[in-house]
Amino acid sequence: MDIAKIRKKSKEAKSGIQDNTAEHQTKEGSEATGMQQKEKPNEKHTLHGEIRDNDKAGTNDISVDKKIGTEPKVKKESSEEEKTDEVIEILTFSLLKEEFAFKISQLAEIIKPQRITVVPRLPKYVIGVTSLRGKVIPVLDLKLKFSLTDKSSESIAKEKILIIKGPKGPIGAMIDKVIGVVRIGKHEIIPPPSHLTEAELKFIEGVAVVDKRFISIVNIEEAIAINIK
Known about the structure:
Oligomer: single chain
Strand content: 25-35%
Shape: globular
Radius of gyration: 29 Å
Largest sheet: 5 strands, mixed
Structural class: alpha+beta
């Protein structure tokens, strides 16, 4: 499963909307220009002196109006729209009976489980290492990492491995099941419940409510950190 393809489809849909908007604005601008050109010949029927005086007065009035009210108002409205329209994409997945998510921008791809070699003297949540296109990468068991269980996975036949973009290279994260991609506004993300312990809170960046489902958005830095004692 290719994360890049999912993001590409989203961008193409957004680009199509922008093209239609630009075409509509161009059409409106052309019609407005045509109306102005039609009005100009009518000015010749008034007195020459009045035309000059009125033109000067009108020009000054318009420039003052723009400086005082028009331009700042437009800028303010556009900035408010940008904040409202901030949307992020998350990939939701399950661990036991809980639902979690990573931001799409943090992921490289999703692969099927493959041969994993155990490495001694590593934390229990590090299942081992595997090879991905010639690179050796560590694979983590997120259920153990998040303390959802104290037992490592006995069977990984139905599980998936998320390839995360780590600061020092890709890192694999074993999950139970991929649920899907969700687009949400940043303002829709709420803080995690205050009753959680400090150990639990450090893994949760925020919570999103989607179709009455509570989805915990994972703090990527803490999730992939490997603490070797």
